[in-house]
Amino acid sequence: MSFYRIAVKCAGGVFKVFLLSKANGKENIPCEGPFLLCANHRSYKDPILIAAGCKRDLTFMAKEELFKKPGLGWLIKKLGAFPIKRGRGDAAAVMATLKIMKKGEPTLIFPEGTRMKKGERKQINSGIIRLALQSNVPILPAFVGANRVTYGKPISYAEYAEQAQNGEAMQRLADELMDTIYALGEKK
To answer: pTM, whole model, 2 decimals?
Structure first.
């Protein structure tokens, strides 16, 4: 068993005991092949809750500042994280994601780029849709609530490939993605 699986099982067990965490929609998680798992982000525990409910090992983007913290940087690297420079385009993070997709592995991304308070939303950059188009993989939307993760059905953007250079169309799809993610939070 990999270090990732051991860590996820331990953390997931602790969360289930103390937080009564639940995962809904696990049947929507593809059993094989790459996908971008996109979720809202409210807490430091979100990546752990998502990973604990997911039957697949995930790599994930994490803000570059986390890699500079002693111990934490080592741990998240060991768990499959790679850094992203927030607030501007990060070609290295895009290339890392494309490489992961090419290997057939899923990646967790928080499109809002930072933790948001309950009831708060941020318009996301359309780059997430372009990334899905460039890698030709579906996006699996997920909503993380207080003690629950809900996985939605994978969304394919292949039919929009010819519109990749249309900024308005890409932004509309990005806004619809976030609407889909937050709508999952309304389901009980």
So the answer is: 0.83
**Domain limits, the chain:** 3-186
156-159: which pairs have CB atoms within 8 A and are 24 or more residues apart? 157/129, 157/132, 157/133, 158/133
- Counting DSSP H helices and E strands in the chain, the numbers are 6, 7
The C-alpha R_g of the chain, in whole angstroms, comes to 16
Q: For 38-76, what is each residue's pLDDT tens digit?
A: 999 888 788 888 888 888 888 888 877 887 888 877 777
Structure tokens at 95: 């290339």
Question: pLDDT of 111-136, one tens digit each?
Answer: 887 665 676 676 777 888 988 999 99
> What does CATH list as the number for 3-186?
3.40.1130.10
Q: How far apart are CA 26 and CA 185, in angstroms?
A: 15
Q: H or E element: which one contains 51? A: helix 46-53
Residues present in the chain in total = 188
